[in-house]
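lol forgot to send this yesterday, sorry. struct tokens for the thing we talked abt
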């Protein structure tokens, strides 16, 4: 009888468990690293404020928010990085680091997207943690943290390697002279040296140019393919004990600085002959091409874009340039020139073979003639100079044969000095 009663109790308990369903432990539904740049917040970065969606043991208790930095150590950082899809953590900071504002979630995004919530606080995990229940912590959603205590992590997918965040980049030529082209030298507090050229992408080379103080990449190569006067010389490397310290340097497509990149410690397979060499510049004209030339005019007093007339044999010369990297186009004025070759070439390109085109400064043409781009149109449409110089060979019908200089932002010889032609 007692056995039957015990068996009946077990059946009742089992039925109750089936009705209640399984007991759910706390767990992380997803984790990601968030950063806000120019009021736009992105997820899935390798460096950013940690945002997790965690579920507590009670049904429906799901909290999505930041992780407080209290008690977080290297093991905990590794655990969170693994949950975010990376192999391990590289560096820990908080939202309070003003110099790292481009690598954190903004306060407004925290309020707007996550209702100023923290999902986890007092989190501390052992080295072998694979799930949230392996870690000590407050209850999901319970915290006493402010925005500035939000945890910021830098994570990596590859083996631990060279710490690039605090590295300065310089381009060095013979005799240790710094230049806009030269052997890439990394200078850090812990180590300094060269970078192996193997596997370097254009994006990585561009980031290095930016870190060296230049806006544009011209080219990159291994030092063995560069003339001796344009690279760091062997004697200087010997005297200063400079060698290759990093290889497999790689910057993701969304990188904004060297801190977003990764590199492994050189293992001796790459020497100074295979070191990285760069040529950089702040002159962006190499990426621009002439896309179009036309003669334009409008009726004075009419300044809508649709009021601009083109395709005739007379008018203000308007030039369109295109950036071959970004596709950006700019259309505007070019300055008056005495060059007979240039005016003949422009007329030829527009289908007019008149060898004796009339050319004037725009200021010499009356607005009321309705044969030029009027002052009112220029002002209302904020038209400016796109070129500071234009020269084309005579009777040439291809824009690629013309030479030009892009106008700087402060270039303004006056609207009256714009180029006007009557072919």
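and heres what i got for the seq, position by position
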């Amino acid at each position: 009888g007692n056995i039957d009663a015990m068996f009946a109790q077990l059946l009742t308990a089992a039925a109750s468990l089936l009705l209640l369903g399984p007991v759910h432990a706390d767990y992380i539904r997803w984790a990601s690293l968030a950063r806000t740049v120019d009021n736009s917040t992105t997820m899935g970065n390798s460096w950013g404020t940690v945002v997790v969606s965690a579920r507590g043991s009670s049904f429906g208790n799901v909290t999505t928010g930041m992780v407080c930095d209290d008690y977080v150590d290297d093991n905990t950082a590794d655990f969170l990085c693994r949950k975010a899809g990376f192999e391990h953590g590289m560096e820990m900071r908080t939202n309070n680091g003003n110099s790292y504002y481009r690598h954190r979630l903004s306060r407004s995004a925290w309020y707007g997207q996550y209702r100023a919530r923290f999902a986890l606080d007092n989190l501390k995990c052992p080295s072998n943690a694979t799930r949230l229940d392996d870690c000590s912590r407050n209850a999901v959603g319970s915290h006493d943290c402010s925005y500035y205590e939000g945890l910021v992590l830098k994570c990596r997918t590859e083996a631990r390697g060279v710490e690039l965040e605090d590295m300065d980049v310089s381009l060095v030529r013979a005799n240790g002279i710094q230049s806009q082209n030269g052997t890439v030298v990394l200078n850090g507090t812990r180590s300094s040296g060269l970078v192996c050229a193997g596997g370097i992408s254009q994006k990585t080379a561009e980031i290095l140019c930016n870190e060296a103080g230049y806006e544009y990449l011209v080219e990159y190569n291994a030092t063995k393919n560069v003339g001796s006067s344009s690279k760091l010389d062997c004697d200087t490397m010997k005297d200063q004990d400079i060698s290759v310290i990093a290889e497999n340097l790689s910057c993701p497509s969304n990188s904004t600085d060297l801190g977003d990149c990764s590199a492994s410690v050189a293992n001796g397979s790459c020497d100074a002959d295979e070191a990285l060499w760069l040529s950089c510049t702040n002159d962006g004209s190499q990426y621009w091409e002439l896309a179009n030339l036309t003669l334009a005019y409008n009726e004075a007093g009419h300044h809508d874009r649709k009021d601009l007339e083109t395709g005739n044999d007379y008018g203000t010369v308007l030039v369109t340039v295109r950036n071959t990297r970004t596709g950006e186009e700019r259309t505007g004025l070019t300055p008056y020139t005495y060059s007979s070759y240039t005016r003949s070439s422009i007329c030829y390109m527009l289908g007019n073979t008149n060898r004796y085109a009339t050319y004037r400064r725009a200021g010499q043409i009356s607005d009321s003639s309705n044969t030029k781009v009027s002052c009112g149109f220029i002002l209302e449409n904020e038209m400016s100079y796109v070129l500071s110089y234009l020269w084309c060979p005579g009777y040439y019908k291809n824009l690629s044969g013309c030479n030009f200089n892009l106008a700087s932002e402060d270039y303004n010889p006056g609207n009256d000095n714009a180029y006007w032609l009557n072919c």
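The first strand starts at residue 27 and ends at 37. anyway ping me if u want another try
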